[in-house]
Amino acid sequence: MLTGLAARLAEIAGAERVISDPVRLRTYECDGLTNHRATPGVVVLPETAEQVAAIVRACASAGVPYVARGSGTGLSGGALPRTDGVLIVTSRMRRILEIDIPGQRAVVEPGVINLDVTRAVRPYGYYFAPDPSSQQICSVGGNVAENSGGAHCLKYGFTAHHVLACEVVTPDGELVELAADAPGYDLLGVFVGAEGTLGITTKITVRLTRVPETVQTLLAAFDSIEAGGTAVSAIIGAGVVPAAIEMMDALAIEAAEAAVRCEYPAGAGSVLIVELDGPDAEVAAQFAGVERLCRDAGAFEIRIAASDEERALIWKGRKSAFAAVGRISPAYLVQDGVIPRTVLPQVLARIDALSAESGVRVANVFHAGDGNLHPLVLFDDAEPGAEERAETVSGAILDLCIEHGGSITGEHGVGVDKSRYMPRMFTDTDLDTMQMVRCGFDPAGLCNPGKVFPTPRLCGEVPGKRKGPHPYEGKADIF
Prior knowledge:
alpha+beta
């Protein structure tokens, strides 16, 4: 079936944009989370929205599953391909279609790199606020799929807060427009963050943010990560909303030093990066308070960036942290859980205890201001049983997040990696309700199947469309 479909895809996109060679297909077998791998049946690289729509119609007609992929920087296996399906790669759709400065908006294709939007509008005094650590290589389409955040999401919000409209190819191959200001249900809000399970975006209208008048950045070093967590709670409790407030523990600092020589204070158990932006007077007043609160929490050294170069050096270690861990460990799992800020010190202490009890090292890097943890669970993949032990610790950390009223993901998504944890956070009724929404968009279950939900449910339980009434039909009292 795939052979015949590949020929049809070549007619749509051109033979040079269809990949079926087994060696070349291996390039696309995983996203940034490399411990989940599957070689796609066929890869196609469209260049227009019309081609994407025609490709989806061809897959739907053949009953073949398909997955959309951008730059492949995801960290939850959300773009993991199907061995029996088609991988639709949007990396060649890289045009910035419109820049509307008076309207504070830009229109881009899904393959446009996140940072390239800022580069294009910076001369006009604007930028694109969502800033994942991978912003130099991640695509806006992928940001939309995962509702990506970044270091500055504490003040400026996630991707969803900066998307005004999306042109979308639905699972039946129709091109439709979803807009934030459209009457009726907020379908754009449902689509952003749906991890590519409801359709494929082919054009995105993003909100542009004016460059702030002043930016001030400090780095505070503490003897322990718990002391750093106390400083975070104190800053937020004082009513200050920094543009960013990030933390790294000693193991993450060690990795960053090995990779990029960021020269953070020697002997630090943790470092806290706090950045304020806005009007001069407001930033000056708040910055003095933040510095005092860090000292009160036990900071033994504080560095204040005096120039853009010094600010970049402070951020260098944090921005490189995920990749840098490869310098101190052969393999690692990237986790993504959320907890209330108020329990940050307690949860960090529990993670330390888990690491000590299991003998599995954990490097902590996280968006401290909104409690979005990114523990990096280290292991040696050449050692029998090591990955399984790392998975156990990783799951225990997610259990800690749920136990303290948090979530199993803040910005990396569920994908295939965390789908098995969904029942720990949601009831069967919750999951069935979510799946009903998915079935409304994709009744055939061909659009990025096998993601988010732990098992096939409802309309996705068997291939093809559901026969007979929905099991909850007529039972409105459960919602």
